[in-house]
Write a structure and sequence with these properties.
alpha+beta, Jelly Rolls, Arc Repressor Mutant, subunit A, 2 domains, 6-stranded antiparallel β-sheet, 3-stranded antiparallel β-sheet, 8 helices, 9 strands, 44% helix, elongated
């Protein structure tokens, strides 16, 4: 699928604007673990993920990471072009969780078209508002949910993403996603294992009782 098939307001652009976007698209392959966007000073542009998986995260003052959202096949990422919106300074880092093929609209091109087109401006505001809603939901989880519930919810989400109950994931990786220390995650996983909800082995977490995890995680 091409960018023109995925961009929801493509038909509202003028032929000249479509040509400008098509002519400026940059195709890149990002290897797993590579950082493609690093903070508000890094104005990468709008990302269209053709295949793969990206993770957007923020850093605490102590240097701990916490995942705010993830991007999959056919997703669009606008936080990597947040510099085109003067009122937004958002220190988000975007990293490839898997080898990822994507296309980039350079920030200056997207900004020009956003200034010309009310449809693009409105779409941009809607997407940004949706992403900020996800961030607010995350803040609520951090403030009001205990860590055992958050770990259970994360394991369930990861199982859906990977389409397996046998997760190849380390305690350190889970800690980075949830913004805590590895020791905390180890303690929570051992508790879940004692409850017969998971089985732990080196670099692996197997979900053995999905229902128990769902009951612990509660409504999402």
């Amino acid at each position: 699928m091409e960018f023109s098939d995925q961009f929801p307001i493509w038909n509202k652009l003028t032929p000249a604007q479509r040509e400008r976007i098509s002519g400026s698209l940059i195709s890149r392959t990002i290897k797993r673990g590579a950082v493609i966007h690093d903070g508000s000073d890094d104005c990468t542009g709008l990302l269209f993920i053709k295949s793969g998986q990206l993770r957007a995260y923020i850093l605490s003052e102590e240097g701990r990471e916490i995942t705010i959202y993830r991007l999959f096949d056919m997703d669009l990422c606008l936080f990597s072009a947040s510099c085109v919106m003067r009122s937004i300074q958002f220190e988000v880092t975007i990293q490839a969780e898997k080898d990822t093929d994507l296309q980039i609209i350079p920030a200056e091109i997207y900004k020009q078209i956003m200034e010309e087109s009310a449809s693009v401006a409105n779409y941009t505001n809607e997407v940004m508002a949706s992403r900020f809603s996800e961030v607010m939901w995350l803040m609520e989880q951090i403030m009001w949910k205990s860590m055992d519930k958050r770990v259970a919810a994360f394991l369930l989400e990861e199982s859906v993403i990977e389409d397996t109950r046998l997760l190849k994931i380390t305690h350190e990786t889970i800690a980075r996603h949830l913004g805590t220390h590895r020791e905390v995650i180890t303690r929570m996983l051992r508790y879940l294992q004692s409850e017969s909800a998971v089985n732990l082995s080196r670099g692996m977490v197997e979900i053995t009782n999905k229902k128990k995890l769902e009951n612990l995680a509660g409504p999402q």
